[in-house]
Amino acid sequence: MRRVPLILGLLLLLLAGAAATGWWYMAIGRHPFSGPFRHDFGEVAITGRAVTVEHTFSLRNRTDTPIVIENSRSGCGCAVAELSTDTVAPGESVEVRVALTLSNAGRKVTNVTLLLRDHDPLPLVVVATSIKETGLSASNDEVRLFPERTTPLLIFAEVQSTDEMPPPPEISATEGIDVTFVGWELLAPRRPEYKHAARWRGRTRVTLARETLDLDAHIRVELGDAEPLVVLAKLAHDAMHDPPTDRFPAESR
Fold first, then answer.
1. What are phi and psi of 145, to 5 degrees?
2. Closest CA relative to residue 150, chosen from 91, 251, 236
3. Parallel/antiparallel/unpaired status of strands 134-138 and 150-159
4. What's the topology of domain 30-132?
5. pLDDT score at 246
6. pLDDT tens digit string along 133-160?
7. Contact of 229 with 136, CB cutoff 8 Å
8. CATH no. of 134-235
9. Sequence ranges of the chain with CATH classification 2.60.40.10
């Protein structure tokens, strides 16, 4: 008899998980739409900053009355849904195109929920495992420079295929800006079982060799097949910006 509460508890957990993905509706026939309600994109290679994948769900009205879709709600800003119609006649189908944008390596699970008039909400679940061979980012989108002073700038590299240290990046800059690459430091090793890339931090020192800067001044960093990284360079000419030290942000804390 003691096993009965345990079994009931396990059943409740299973039903709760099924309800979260829309399978519950199909299992007991409560929901007016027929699915499937879940799609797995599998492994998706990210080239550049991000990649967008799409899938179209086809949902058929299996009732004898029209179904009105009042709205849709995304679980994150990375998922966007478009509907072919907002009123679905009996026996007819609605096409729901879901676009999922991926920018970071790893597994992504999210949903788009359809809000229906006179019916329970219907979650459509999308899953993807994104793989990024090489990615570049910086500690800031722009760097403030003082004439004839050195400013530290951190860049970050994510490498999917190896734990070996990346080669020095190719760095170019607007005339009057000198950039010296100091070296890489491993922040996190690869975790292939989770599709997580090795993460490296690169230290650079940026020096402004003149008193002025062009409006479009920038620093460009290139590494392997990653999309080039562009960091804007601005002149720090007022009291709002403290003169930099030659220490990196991580070392100053």
1. -115, 140
2. 236
3. antiparallel
4. Immunoglobulin-like (2.60.40)
5. 53
6. 788 899 889 999 988 889 999 999 988 7
7. yes
8. 2.60.40.10
9. 30-132, 134-235
